[in-house]
Amino acid sequence: MRVPSSGGQCGTAAPSREADWVAGFADREVREMAVEHAVIVLMRAVNVGGNNKLPMARLREVISAAGLTDVRTYIQSGNVVCRSRWKPAKVAELVTSVIETEFGLQVPAVALSHSELAQAIAQWPVPHGALPKTLHCIVLEKSLNSQQVALIEAQVGASQSTGSEDFAEAIDRFIYLYTPDGIGNSKLARQLSTAKIGGTARNWNTANTLLEMASGRE
After folding, report:
1. Which of 107, 49, 117 is nearest to 81 (CA)?
2. Which of 26, 37, 40, 46 has its CA 20 to 30 A from that of 210?
């Protein structure tokens, strides 16, 4: 894929960092799809409490230069919708690499195809009468193992034994979390965040907005 040159006035322009990124990924044979498809990239702990400051406009520029197309971002919490021939996991790897090189930040990211996000929303266990702001989904790189699932079930049981209505359920590579009193007041949410399972959480409204943004880009 061609990358804009640095545009020097004379002589041969020095290779850009964007060109290096693209060349490195091409060498590893990650361009695995015949046609471009929609990819949703979710970054963890971006622009939170003054930490990991990541300007979305500049982010769009650098990841576009690195080979992703039709790049759009949503709010400031690190949500990217784009198109690529690369599989979602490799797109996440590329975005992480670009962010570290350009901004000096180590920001974990996970990525989903349009169909994966649609499935995540379709299978979301929604309690009757639940408000959208009480519904959260932690997106993981891969499905949990049996020990991790058992740990989550134990944490849910312990939480509910204290009278809490908080609930969590692991399905495939997603953990669905219901916090009727708010995620900031949820002991279960805090336990999950320290369980070293990785991933990043998005609420119901954000997930559906990202799906809408990705629709029509397949």
Report:
1. 117
2. 26
Determine whether 57 is exposed, middle or buried from the number of CB atoms within 10 Å of its CB (0-12, 13-18, 19+): exposed
Task: Give the rounded distance of the alpha carbon of 97 from its chain centre.
Answer: 14
Instruction: Please check whether residue 94 is in contact with residue 68, taking contact to mean a CB–CB distance below 8 angstroms.
Output: yes
CATH architecture of 120-204: 2-Layer Sandwich (3.30)
Q: What stretch(es) of the chain map to CATH 3.30.70.1280?
A: 17-118
Q: State the fold for domain 17-118.
A: Alpha-Beta Plaits (3.30.70)
Q: State pTM to two decimals.
A: 0.84
pLDDT at 116: 97
Residue 75 falls in which region: left (phi positive, over 0), alpha (psi -120 to 50) or beta: left
Closest among 109, 79, 83, 80 to 96, alpha carbons compared: 109
Tokens of 90: 């490799």
The Cα-based distances of 60 to 45, 82, 98 in angstroms read: 18, 10, 11
63: helix, strand or coil: helix
C-beta of residue 23 within 8 angstroms of C-beta of residue 77: no
What mean pLDDT is reported for the chain? 86
